């Protein structure tokens, strides 16, 4: 499986969520609404989720193992950093 496209939309509102991402896998499958979050230890991604009946949130799509999660996180954060650098150059 290869990540063949990453799209990032920055979030301008103050808060810990910095962007929303979409990734395409093998030019055939898209996952929308991955979130780029600023945590205490740095940036990380959160999988798309939906509120459950008990008030908690459940991921609606997620990788089965940590290696795939890390691959997704690296690709998304790389694209997010590139977007920030491009915006800095415009200023």
TrEMBL record:
One of the GO biological process terms: division septum assembly
Keywords carried by this UniProt record: Cell cycle, Cell division, Septation
InterPro entries: SpoVG, SpoVG_sf
Family indicated by similarity: Belongs to the SpoVG family.
Role of this protein: Could be involved in septation.
Full protein name: Putative septation protein SpoVG
Organism in which the protein naturally occurs: Moryella indoligenes
Taxonomy of the source species: Bacteria, Bacillati, Bacillota, Clostridia, Lachnospirales
């Amino acid at each position: 499986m290869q990540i063949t496209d990453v799209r990032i939309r920055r979030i301008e509102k103050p808060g810990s969520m910095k962007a929303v991402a979409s990734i395409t896998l093998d030019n055939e499958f898209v996952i929308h609404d991955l979130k780029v979050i600023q945590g205490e230890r740095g940036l990380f991604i959160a999988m798309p989720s939906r509120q459950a009946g008990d008030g908690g949130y459940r991921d609606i799509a997620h990788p089965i193992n940590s290696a795939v999660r890390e691959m997704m996180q690296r690709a998304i954060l790389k694209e997010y950093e590139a977007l920030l650098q491009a915006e800095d150059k415009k200023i």
